[in-house]
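Project standup — Tuesday

K.O.: blocked on the structure for the chain from last sprint. Re-posting the sequence here as requested.
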Amino acid sequence: MTKQEYLDRLSEKLKVLPASERQDALDYYEGYLSDAGDEAAAISQLGQPGEVAANILADYVTKAPTYAPTIKKDGASGAKTALMIILALFAIPIGLPIAISLAAVAFSLFISLGVIILSFGLTGLGSIIFGIVGIIAFPFAVMQDFGASLMFGGTGLVSIGLGILFIKLTILMTRGFPMIARFVANKISRRQRHDR
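H.V.: unblocked you, prediction finished:
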């Protein structure tokens, strides 16, 4: 969408405002887009014209309550905007605790994944150390009991193998989880862009 198309759509959404207020808003956004350099990037940062218009209308209603009835000039879009503002105000007591809960769940999942990765790494390191001790004990145990020496040697080799496996899993998880997180974030942002 070009700058002019964006401003035309924004003007259409703001037609419920008095002409001077609408022109002030359009002048501001025209200046912003002109100064930005890359129009496409600036437009994508601003968001859809309907969202920008909703913010402008909400600011207008809260800053100038005496003029609030003039917003109802265009019955459908004015009433729709007023209804959206009222619903947003009523949603705050419900939405804020839900948002805090979701943030707490996301934080606890992040900490849990960190603890799992750390435990895998420490388990791998401990297994390797245990395996090295078993292999070092092997020649000393041969003189005492041949069966015990085989047990020390075999247990040491198995422990080193398991330790290497756990270390490899730790490396895989530290590289894999950020890739999975980026993949999920990209899917969510594409879906949101598609819904707009």
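K.O.: great, moving the ticket to review. The first helix runs from residue 3 to 13. Residues 3-73 form one domain.
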